[in-house]
């Protein structure tokens, strides 16, 4: 199994956590986004969208981090489950995950921030304001959602991390890079603390990867 990723990519970070939780061995191959290696013909052959991550398993290529995580759950059901519980609980886990992966992350990733700078001629201050606005908007909603849980689990929706936690931790990492005041979100911080106790999350952390830079 091969994972084409970039150490600071939130989407790649999610998949690394998922692979670690499921105790699946894989080879990591860095695709340096800052050097535009994702735009190469070689990478486009792996993913026509020219994005990371790309997972290659048994010769087949898989893209989009949430789809990859659910593929891992379905293809390797005997290991750690990323989706747990009944249909309503699984829907809640998916909704929380998609609020991050489909709502806030796409409009704050590297190519969007570069577009703001190059095509729209916005400086660092405006890019930072843009980033903080959308992250705070989503984090506020997620914090409220966690406060309203009928059972206050140590992780987002269970006594163990699920796909929701897999998505949350990389977004918190990126939020700190853009000076988001995380003290505003005590529930998110509690969950982050719980995840930090687990080797699967620590091994996936960007500072523990080969950057390729």
Please describe what this structure looks like.
This protein has 213 residues and is of the alpha+beta class. The chain has two domains: 2-80, Glutaredoxin (3-Layer(aba) Sandwich); 87-200, Glutathione S-transferase Yfyf (Class Pi), Chain A, domain 2. 53% of the residues lie in helices and 8% in strands. Strands 2-1-3-4 form a four-stranded mixed beta sheet, covered by helices on one side. β1 (2-5), α1 and β2 form a beta-alpha-beta unit. α1 (10-21) packs parallel to α3, α4 runs antiparallel to α6 and α7 crosses α8.
Give structural attributes.
globular; Glutaredoxin; 213 residues; four-stranded mixed sheet; alpha+beta; single chain; Glutathione S-transferase Yfyf (Class Pi), Chain A, domain 2; 9 helices; 4 strands
Mean pLDDT over all positions: 94
Stretches where pLDDT is under 50 for at least 5 consecutive residues are: none
CATH architecture of the largest domain: Up-down Bundle
Query: Helix content range of the residues, please?
Result: 40-55%
Our Rg estimate from Cα atoms comes to 17 Å
Order of helices and strands: EHEHEEHHHHHHH
State the helix count. 9
How far the N terminus sits from the C terminus, by CA atoms, comes to 23 Å
Spatial order of the strands forming the largest sheet: 2-1-3-4
Oligomer class = single chain
The proportion of residues in beta strands is 5-15%
Largest sheet: 4 strands, mixed
Shape: globular
Q: Total domains, how many?
A: 2
CATH class value of the largest domain: Mainly Alpha
CATH topology of the largest domain: Glutathione S-transferase Yfyf (Class Pi), Chain A, domain 2
Number of strands: 4
Classify the secondary structure makeup into a structural class.
alpha+beta
């Amino acid at each position: 199994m091969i994972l084409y990723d970039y150490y600071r990519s939130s989407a790649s970070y999610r998949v690394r956590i998922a692979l670690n939780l499921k105790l699946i061995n894989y080879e990591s191959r860095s695709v340096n986004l800052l050097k535009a290696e994702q735009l190469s013909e070689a990478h486009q052959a792996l993913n026509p969208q020219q994005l990371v991550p790309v997972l290659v398993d048994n010769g087949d290529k898989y893209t989009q981090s949430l789809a990859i995580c659910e593929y891992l759950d379905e293809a390797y059901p005997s290991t750690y489950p990323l989706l747990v519980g009944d249909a309503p609980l699984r829907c809640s886990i998916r909704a929380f995950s998609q609020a991050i992966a489909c709502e806030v992350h796409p409009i704050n990733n590297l190519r969007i921030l570069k577009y703001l700078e190059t095509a729209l001629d916005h400086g660092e201050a405006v890019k930072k304001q843009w980033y903080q606005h959308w992250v705070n908007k989503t984090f506020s909603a997620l914090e409220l959602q966690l406060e309203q849980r009928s059972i206050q689990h140590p992780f987002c929706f269970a006594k163990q991390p699920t796909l929701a936690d897999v998505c949350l931790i990389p977004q918190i990492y990126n939020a700190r890079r853009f000076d988001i005041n995380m003290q505003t979100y005590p529930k998110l911080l509690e969950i982050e603390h719980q995840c930090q106790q687990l080797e699967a999350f620590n091994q996936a952390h960007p500072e523990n990867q080969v950057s390729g830079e």
